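worker-03 picked up job from queue 'complexes'. Input manifest follows; two sequence lines, order preserved.
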Amino acid sequence: MEQTTAVPIQLQPRERPKRKFRRNFWGYLFVLPAIVIFALFLWYPIVKGLMDSLYKIDFVKGDSFVGFDNYRTVFNDPDVRIAVKNTLKYMGLGIVIGFWVPILFAIMISEMRKFQGFARVAAYLPYVVPFVVLYGVWRWMYDPVGPINQVIKSFGIDPVLFMVDKAWAMPAIVIMETWQSFGSAMLIYLAAVLSIPRDWYEASEIDGAGVWQRIRHITLPAIKNQILLLLMLQLIATSQGFQTQYAMLDGGPNNATLTYALLLTRYAFVRQDYGVASAMGVIMFFALVILAIIQYRLNRNGGID
Amino acid sequence: MKASKSLERGILSSYDHQKPSIRLGYYLMNLIVLVMMCVMVYPLLISLFNGLKVNKEVNSFPPTFLPRDGWHFDNYKRAWEYIDLPKYLKNTLFIFGGNMLIIVIVIGFAAFALSKMKFPFRRGIYYYFLLTLFVPATTYAIPNFVNLKELGLMGWYGAIWLPAGANAFYLLLLKTFMDGIHNETFESARIDGASEIRTFFQIAFPLSIPIFATLAIFVFATAWNDWFWPNFMLGQDYKPLSAAIKTLVLDARMLDLNMKFAILTIVMFPPIMIFLFFQKYILRGLYLGGVKG
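worker-03 finished. Artifact:
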């Protein structure tokens, strides 16, 4: 073995300079377009955002340095407090209402002896339709004369004004989004559940474990990695969510669905204050960094136990 | 993922299935899944039927499922004439095609170089790409918008195409996949005197087709769904389908509800049909992306 590897090493010095230059040249040439694109559309905007957050941006008169004034504006704006609260509410509701749904259905569908394929396709179906189209459909679903209120009324309960009631607007959006996208998370869980070795269940059944114990001690621990990953991805996504809130309700009723990212786009496009919008973006970055550190700490502590 | 193995047993064994209490639970579980399936399909079907009703019926309570006052197929004809869907669909496909081309050339080449070629600072360059994953889109979205304006890309497809190549997640997926291809294949091609570009197009690209297909699904989903930024960046004639639906249908005040549903249904059903026909391949592609990611 050593003999064979020794031969090329001896040969190398002779060919090295030309070949190495050729290799390096092509290597750099291949990564060059990506380096330029990443610089132009990621790194430059990131740095520019940091800089802009310290300036008053004026496209006509030119930018002027204002120090931390933009950050002061953000921290003193009562709308920001509302937006942060709404965003935390949105993230929380996303977990309470939505997060467990794909796990539950993945386990249930994996146990089905017939029509597994149908259930899988039906769950994924709304995900292939453009979100915008579904916003239109669900506005009517939530309407006082819509089908959901028909069901509510048939139980003899007063109709719920989902799109007007401050308490119901955010849950209504989370329910819609859960309906729309739990199928894609379910497929990931389903693949993980189906890849659990069958003999684990066999062994635990022989040891007298009941169905719930098997789920609790075998199925759930086996998909723990997927659960943690998707939880993290969902938190990152919902912390920045604003498009559904904007399209369905434009932040209303009475700012009940005004999320942080929606307020940020409002600062940019409605108030034309790009400096404050950039400052909000930078604050968002640090908030997510803190979230990542907390998650890392929890993970490490969890590992010790 | 195939059912052959899971048929033997799952969490429940065939012995469990003989117990009455578990049988009852099993039927209950099937019922819950059935209810879920109905809940998933109902909003899609009711849109189809709402598009066939007269406007008064759509706005009346309680809502009907099937049209009561006749099936008005001409609604769909009028809906088709109301909005130039083929034009906007063409724009969506154009955006998708351009994005995909940029991704193959920019990210494909970079992933290939980082995975299969050796050159100084390779690791540093890799981190230069990957570190962008830690910055949330919210942070750079607005500066990027201003930047695109200053670069003079606004109003043209370039404002969507070029930034599509700046995606570290896709790069990570591609590089991880290419790492799994044996080096010997490329070594022998190089010894035979193939240029690096030829090696990429004739060996690396064909071998990576599965992961490019997965990427294509992701890229298509983006082009298909994105409406917020295209609405700001592109003129009316360049807008993709989703952006046009938002401005011309959802935000339209004077449009009758039955017409709205007819338009939404026309947009909804082609992708559903395509998905139902190709679901085996699409779900497999997504599965591959999930495993490799």
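worker-03 released lock.
Strands of chain A lie at 55-56, 64-65.
Residues 1-13 of chain A have pLDDT under 50 and may be disordered.
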